[in-house]
Write a structure and sequence with these properties.
There is one protein chain. This protein is of the alpha+beta class. It folds into 2 domains: about 170 residues, Creatinase/prolidase N-terminal domain (Creatine Amidinohydrolase, Chain A, domain 1, 3-Layer(aba) Sandwich); about 260 residues, Alpha-Beta Complex (Creatine Amidinohydrolase). The longest helix is centred in the middle third of the chain and has 24 residues. Bound molecules: glycine and manganese (II) ion (2 copies). The site of glycine has 7 residues, from loops.
């Protein structure tokens, strides 16, 4: 991605960080799966959003003085031996020349330099609560800065989570192009699996196929651990064991999305392992499908996040009543939350650099209204475990259908519609 966009985003902070204020953002640390076996490094999303810089243990300090942002970054220092073992480091010089920071230092200089950068500012913006050891450092640096300025006001500490999160909530054109590609890659992976899956395969075999299909199209990593759930495993919402056999006559629910150029996609499809829905599976599926379609239609300017939520709940209540799974007046059942035994999660979440992306869900006392550039998932589901108090014929059926929806000024675009969710189209693809 063109590095200028990251500098432009930093410069634009002058409209959201008040004058004489400073924003500190910490990058991710290297993480280890066991002993000294490192996971592939992944930069913290807000740090990436404002820097494009992908080395661990880095810190950014962005100061607004007279409506102009001065950017400072602390990075791992150049080190011949470490670079032989772990790879190239830009060092402070590279951070300035290649990433367009105004100032750059070795990250060993945090304690000696940051109090001076804070001194004289009125407000410090920082996302508290993500890393308590770093929270303590930030408080320590602020105390030192305050002590050095005994005769002026102390620096107000303000939580920055909403400030940066709400910038990320509205995607720019470059981000939208990447998200489209991310979604397309994942849609193609789902199609590939639908075309080839056979009874007797295992969940982990299917998981591996998704990862391969993502990687060969440019998404080396999944955006989150895939949920590959055969039969009743679909009723465990965060099922990630992915180690059972896939049986003839059962459904498989796959919630899997790749990460492309740091941006997530998030798709769930539920389809018959043998390519043909049973009568009961199809009846449940059609209720979820209707909820998915009607909730997607409600993602538009003029509506807020509760519109698709309510619509999905009402469609599911009515569908469960029609099938005799719930009994009573649909409106009363909806008001009583009777559907929550079968549809117990929210209809969606923001999507972007993180799969559960940053951005508020409320604006003041109101639910967040949809605005062009927002991307939300729409993912209603019905989950009927074997312990549910229903006719046996419904037991063990779990269905979720999840799409990624971009809000535009003219309506919305379903970024994941390439992979079918219409049951007859799924059966045709699998035949
Ligand atoms: N894949 C995570 C979610 O659907 O929220
Ligand atoms: Mn999701
Ligand atoms: Mn998902």
């Amino acid at each position: 991605m063109n590095k200028n966009i990251f500098k432009q985003r930093r410069d634009n902070l002058s409209s959201v960080i008040p004058n004489n204020s400073v924003l500190i953002i910490i990058g991710a640390e290297s993480r280890y799966r066991n002993a000294d076996s490192a996971y592939a490094f992944r930069q913290e999303s807000s740090f990436y959003y404002l820097s494009g810089f992908c080395e661990p243990s880095s810190v950014m300090v962005l100061a607004n003085k007279d409506n102009k942002i001065t950017s400072t970054i602390f990075v791992p220092k150049k080190d011949k031996v470490k670079e032989i073992w772990d790879g190239y480091r830009a060092g402070p010089e590279g951070a300035i020349s290649d990433y367009f920071f105004d100032n750059a230092f070795n990250n060993e200089e945090l304690d000696s330099k940051i109090p001076g950068l804070l001194q004289g500012n009125q407000k410090l913006f920082y996302s508290f609560g993500k890393d308590t050891s770093f929270d303590k450092k930030v408080i320590g640096w602020t105390n030192i800065a305050n002590a050095a300025e005994r005769h002026s006001k102390t620096i107000d500490m303000v939580d920055a989570t909403s400030l940066v999160g709400n910038l990320r909530l509205i995607k720019d054109d470059g981000e939208i192009e990447i998200l489209k590609k991310s979604c397309e890659i994942s849609a193609e992976a789902h199609i590939s699996v639908m075309k080839s899956i056979q009874p007797g395969q295992t969940e982990q075999e299917i998981e591996a196929q998704y990862l391969y299909e993502f990687a060969k199209r440019g998404s080396r990593f999944a955006a989150y651990t895939p949920i590959v759930a055969g039969g009743e495993n679909a009723c465990v919402l965060h099922y990630v064991e992915n180690n059972q056999s896939l049986n003839n006559g059962e459904l498989i629910l796959v919630d899997a999305g790749g990460e492309y150029e740091m941006y997530a996609s998030d798709i769930t499809r539920t389809f018959p392992v043998n390519g043909k829905f049973t009568k009961e599976q199809l009846e449940i599926y059609n209720v979820v499908y209707k909820a998915n379609q009607e909730a997607i239609n409600a993602v538009k300017v003029g509506n807020n996040i509760m519109d698709p939520q309510k619509i999905s709940e009402k469609v599911i209540v009515e569908g469960l009543v029609d099938l005799g799974i719930l009994n009573g007046d649909p409106e009363n059942l909806y008001e009583d939350g009777a559907h929550k035994d079968f549809y117990m999660h929210k209809v969606g979440h923001w999507l972007g650099l993180d799969v559960h992306d940053s951005g508020d869900y409320m604006e003041g006392d109101e639910f967040m209204s949809f605005k062009p550039g927002m991307v939300t998932t729409i993912e209603p589901g019905i989950y009927i475990s074997s312990s549910a108090d229903v006719d046996d014929k419904w037991k063990g059926i779990g269905v979720r259908i999840e799409d990624d929806i971009l809000v535009t000024s003219e309506g919305n675009i379903n970024l994941t519609e390439k992979v079918p969710s219409d049951p007859s189209e799924i059966e045709a693809l699998m035949s």
